[in-house]
User: Fold this.
Amino acid sequence: MLAMLSPLMKTLVFAGALILAWALYVMRLLIVRLPKGPLRRRWYAMAAMNALFVAGYLAYAAVT
Assistant:
């Protein structure tokens, strides 16, 4: 049963990674419009965490 679900699970994980990658692009568009300062740095931190999630999703898809 698990073998049947594996392709579906990988597809869903990859779709999640694509959504997060798109969010990174949108964050980049937002960050360039923000004034320099603490708010921009917080958005950089948020983007870095998002990038780690994308890497985690892709690593999980590669391992399973």
Residues 2-33 form the longest helix (32 residues). The chain has one domain: 17-63.
